Amino acid sequence: MATIMNEVTALAVQRRVVFRLATFFLLLQLMNAIDRSNISFAATAMNADLGFDARVYGFGISCFFLSYIFFQFPAIFAMRRFGPSKTLGLIVVSWGLVSMAMAAVQDAYSFYVLRFLLGMTEAGAVPVMLYYASCWTPQKNQGAFFKIMTLSWPLAVVIGAPLASLLMNHLGQIGGLPGWRWLFIAEGIPTVALGLFALIWLADSPAHARNLSEPERQWLVAQLQHDKAVAEAAAPQQAKSSFLMSALADRRVWLLSLAYFGEIAGLYGAVFWLPQVIGQLSPEIGSDRAILLTMVPFAVGTVTLLLNAARSDRKQERSWHITGGFLVGALGLGSTGLISDPWLGFVALTIGIAGLCAATGLFWSIPTGMFRGLAHAAAAFTLINVVGNVSGLVIPAVIGMLRVATGDFSSALLLLAGLLLMSAALMRIVGEPADGLAVA
Question: Which domain range does residue 415 map to?
Answer without folding.
Answer: 240-429
